[in-house]
Amino acid sequence: MNQNLRNMEYAVRGAIVIRADELAAEGKKILYTNIGNPHSVGQKPLTWPRQVSALVDLPADVGVDHPQAASLFPADAIARAREMKGALGGGTGAYSHSKGIRSFRDDVAAFIASRDGIPADPERIFLTNGASTGIGSILTTVMAGGKDGCMIPIPQYPIYSATLAMLNARQVGYALSEGAGWSASLASLESSLASAKAAGTNVKAFVLINPGNPTGQVLDPSAIEDVCRFCDKHGLVLLADEVQVPPPPARAR
């Protein structure tokens, strides 16, 4: 593996971004790619979700019930906004259930069941304000002391190392093999876990980032199954970040 990659610090914010901000303040044109914002490189926002969001946020009399709404918004966006406003009890801007609106969790459960063919319980689904909030909540719950640790891939997305440092918990890195398409073998996982335990770390969780960030790899189903079995064997909480399973190969006709 490239030692520079193993030793690098992947910083979403840091010295490079600070310098970029300074140059931008001087009038230089800066193309920011540190936070994965597709709009900054020219991608247009998706129209339909913005239309629905606008109609949900607007008061009904100037939104879904406005006389000219049908001429400004497509019918399906208006219908979806009405449905969402009903689930919200009128509109946005107020507290909701700590798990998220039940109707929205029902939609998520239905999607999971349709995609995976496995029933999903909306009462076991929690909606968060972005992935970072969910990650922080789970790690805060799981990491209880200075000797608790979490296995994270190296290279990794820095929210994990930063959150573990903030919680005074231990980072247990497992190396991704560049030569093997940025995958991790069961042998390397066992080795990382054993080394951490020998150092007195109480390893309680495992982070799987797929597609990889910043490596970009997509693990095949067998590799994901290996990780699941590894976590089950050692009683580790599995944090699955952006899980994506490649479609099965097409069958010959």
TrEMBL record:
Per UniProt, residues of the Aminotransferase class I/classII large domain are 81-243
Look up the record and name the cofactor or cofactors this protein needs.
Answer: pyridoxal 5'-phosphate
State whether keyword Manganese applies. Answer: no
Q: SUPFAM superfamilies given for it? A: PLP-dependent transferases
Give the domain of life: Eukaryota
The keyword Transferase belongs to this UniProt entry's keyword annotation: yes
Entry keywords, A to Z: Aminotransferase, Pyridoxal phosphate, Transferase
Q: CDD domains, per this entry?
A: AAT_like (cd00609)
- Subunit and partners: Homodimer.
The entry sums up its family as follows: Belongs to the class-I pyridoxal-phosphate-dependent aminotransferase family. Alanine aminotransferase subfamily.
Name under which the protein is recorded: Aminotransferase class I/classII large domain-containing protein
User: What species was this sequence derived from?
Assistant: Tetraparma gracilis
